[in-house]
Amino acid sequence: MKKIIPFLIVGVFLISGLQCMATEKKFKLDTEFPDLSNDSEIFIAPISQPCSPDYQMINKNGEHTNEEPEIHLISYRQNSKNITDNREIEKQWTLNQKQNNIETYNYVIITVESLYNAITSSAFIGWKTLLGHTVKIFNITDTEIASQNGQDLPEKIRNFLRVSYQELGIEYVLLIGDHATIPMRYCYPDPTNHRFDIFDWTSGEVPTDYYYADLSSGDADSWDLDGDGYYGEYGQDSPDFFPEVYIGRIPTSISTRITYTLDKITSFEQDSTEWKTNALNAGSFFYFTNEGNSGNPAMDGATLSYYIENDTMTNWSNSHYSEQQGLETSVYPWPPLSETALTSDWLNGQYSVVNWQGHGWTNRAARKVWEWDDGDNVPEASEISFIDFININSNLDDDYPSIVTAESCYVGCPEASPTGNLGIDLLTDPSMGASIGVIASARSPYGTFDWPNNPGGSDSILFEFNRFLINDSKTVGEALYNAKYFCNLFYGWDHYAEYLDMYTFNLFGEPSLVLKGISVENLPPDTPTITGPAQGKIKVAIQYNFTAIDPNGDEVSYFIEWGDGTDSDWIGPYNSGCIIIKSHTWSTKGDYIIRVKAKDSNGDESDWGTLTVTMPYSFNRPTLQFLKVLFERFPNAFPFLRQLLGY
């Protein structure tokens, strides 16, 4: 279900080219955009069936239900942002680093201690380091976060980022953990609706990670300006939506899924082959012409896909689908959309970007089909069917994972749903795994009937995301937050619906991800580490652990020398960062140096890693000489001591 904004323009619309630039350390607007008159009057409706007293939507149980519509009269908001203020950020950020002369990290991971090994056992950190990022992991129990002022964990995390992003040079933040572990901030864009009910789309809460990106002011001066504890209220609170840092999230606390996702991200970014300019787009109807006798035009999701293809993917190879079944069909004469058509194409094709539009819930996205008519030529709820075109059971794989935008209600829901979470599974579930990053709505976004003639809302956010990502070659995180800030700056509505759209679209994925991939020189594995006992007994097998990380994420093999003239020969290959366990038995006493080196799939070898061990345990030399004399003089004495020391 996608909430709609019907534009009924009664004033004169003036659109002209205007050059404007907002500059700071990362975000630069150097494009033309329309000057939208705020005298225009716009009717918006936070409903799924416009202007109908009796309409149909999909509820949390997959059932159809009816709701009463609300109609609001709004206009474009006058832009009051002082763009030139942003120019000072770069100077101050650089100055602080030089003055403090401290170690900086442009990439911060925030997680919990129990997930640390899942993160470090992947090739992700090594890969990002190879690309020039300086990565630091912070646990939420670390002093840097736990000691911050704040009424809850989100405020402590945000305060940590506020005091640290300039000092440490933070640009990217990756939150790793599910919503219960690393919560989003619940915002309430409608100041009259503070009702909390996760799986009721009419409730007021909207979870968002934008709270961690806009760090300009403290909560009391921005996100909760009125101090009532309800964050992000339109007209009462004052976030400025300028992204000081870019936020992404791996929305699971399952360790195996985390390692899988991080390794998948690494592999995707290492691939710069031709398939990165292939896209798959699909749109279904949100509303039919005169649906419910409303007098409104149709809202066809394929319109967004059409403009994305024609304005941002001009040199790409595109596959696309639209609604071709029922009494009203799409004006875009593409192949008919169905679950079989879409998922088979996705499964067997190679697409770096997938955009879809359609009604949805946490576990599905659906087509809307006008099946029959009772003779009045008006689409009515009883005549309309919803048919899935993708769900959590769809047959997909991760051979060529895609950056996905899903313009569907609740597909980006971060809370665990009893019916399943499609957005989370597309990124983190190895049995599906068809996405490398998901831009999806946590709740129900607003759209317009007359887009793109009247820009703004969810369509503009996702269109601008594709433009920043493809035409401007921004990272995924930059593309999302720059798109949202751009729309807020120039397409703002004088209504809480605009704030809702700012909050509801989040990134499940990694914010510094580069779509086209990055080619780097192959590097050998890091020097392996050896862990295990430094002393032992002869003729007793002793276990040792060996591990090495390959910066390129390649598989590694190991060659182990035990220091007694024996070796393992090459063994493997194993996944980068995987710990292998090997045993060895020494037959004579003495000091030995275990040596190991690693080799990647390209044949490049690491330096030797070493560990010195003693068989048996050695006392200091005077003691050994004394015991040697003692044992020789009394050959049958001290049997226990002889056994202990290996004599």
Q: In a few lines, what is going on in this structure?
A:
By secondary structure, the chain is of the alpha/beta class.
Protein model, in words:
There is one protein chain. By secondary structure, this protein is α/β, with parallel strands linked by helices. Helices cover 23% and strands 23% of the residues. The chain has two domains: 506 residues, 3-Layer(aba) Sandwich (Rossmann fold); 88 residues, Immunoglobulins (Immunoglobulin-like), CATH 2.60.40.10.
| Count of the separate structural domains | 2
Radius of gyration: 30 Å
> How many helical elements?
15
Helix/strand-derived class?
alpha/beta
CATH fold category name of the largest domain: Rossmann fold
Write the layout of secondary structure elements.
Elements: E1 3-5, E2 17-19, E3 32-34, E4 42-44, E5 57-58, E6 64-65, E7 72-74, H1 88-100, E8 107-111, H2 116-120, H3 124-130, E9 135-139, H4 143-146, H5 153-168, E10 172-176, E11 185-187, E12 206-208, H6 210-213, E13 246-250, H7 255-270, E14 278-283, E15 285-287, E16 299-300, H8 302-312, E17 317-321, H9 339-348, E18 353-357, E19 359-361, E20 364-370, E21 384-391, E22 402-407, H10 422-428, E23 435-441, E24 446-448, H11 457-471, H12 476-490, H13 496-504, E25 505-508, E26 529-531, E27 542-547, E28 556-561, E29 567-574, E30 580-584, E31 590-600, E32 609-615, H14 621-633, H15 639-645
Parallel strand pairs: 1-24, 8-9, 8-10, 10-13, 14-17, 14-18, 18-22, 22-23
Antiparallel strand pairs: 2-3, 4-7, 5-6, 11-12, 15-16, 19-20, 20-21, 23-25, 26-27, 27-30, 28-29, 28-31, 31-32
Helix pairs in contact: 1-5, 8-11, 11-12
